[in-house]
Design goal:
single chain, 46 residues, 2 helices, 0% strand
């Protein structure tokens, strides 16, 4: 990094990230293992 950020700069970055997280819908609620199992089942069918 270029250097340390001031408290105000850190606070602004945190607020920006929190706003982006609030604006974007959550991704699928499946766990990592559920996703892997679904992918494995799909590949077995091919």
């Amino acid at each position: 990094m270029a250097g340390k950020l001031s408290k105000q700069e850190r606070k602004a970055l945190i607020e920006e990230v929190e706003k982006k997280r609030a604006d974007e819908p959550k991704k699928s609620g499946k766990s990592g293992f559920a996703t892997i199992d679904a992918e494995a089942a799909r590949l077995e069918k091919e």
